[in-house]
Amino acid sequence: MKVSPDIVKTLADLEELGLTRQTTYVRRVGTDREKVIKDVTSIKDEDLDYFSLLIVKGNPTGNKE
């Protein structure tokens, strides 16, 4: 999903669902300054860019892991 100004709420929702460990944040996708952040709890304001994505690996069992 494309990251919006609501990323703080989105990250809180992911934490509540137990999905932060299954989430990767990629900033400046497709540019020479692309950066992959696997620990989404460490995202800082300066990491928020227009060409950014949150990739959430689904949990087909529905269990919180």
Please, how many helices?
1
Strand content: 15-25%
How confident overall, as mean pLDDT?
83
Write out the strand line-up for the largest beta sheet, numbering strands in chain order: 2-1-3
Structural class call reads alpha+beta
- What's the total number of strands? 3
Gist?
The protein has one helix at 7-16, and strands spanning 23-27, 35-37, 53-56. It is α+β, with helices and mostly antiparallel strands and 65 residues long. The protein has one domain.
Give a structural overview.
The protein has 65 residues and is of the alpha+beta class. The protein has one domain (7-56). It contains 1 helix and 3 strands, in the order αβββ. It has one helix spanning 7-16, and strands spanning 23-27, 35-37, 53-56. The chain is globular. The model has no long low-confidence stretch (mean pLDDT 83).
Could you give the topology of this structure?
Elements: H1 7-16, E1 23-27, E2 35-37, E3 53-56
Antiparallel strand pairs: 1-2, 1-3
Keywords:
single chain; globular; 1 helix; three-stranded antiparallel sheet; 65 residues; alpha+beta; 15% helix
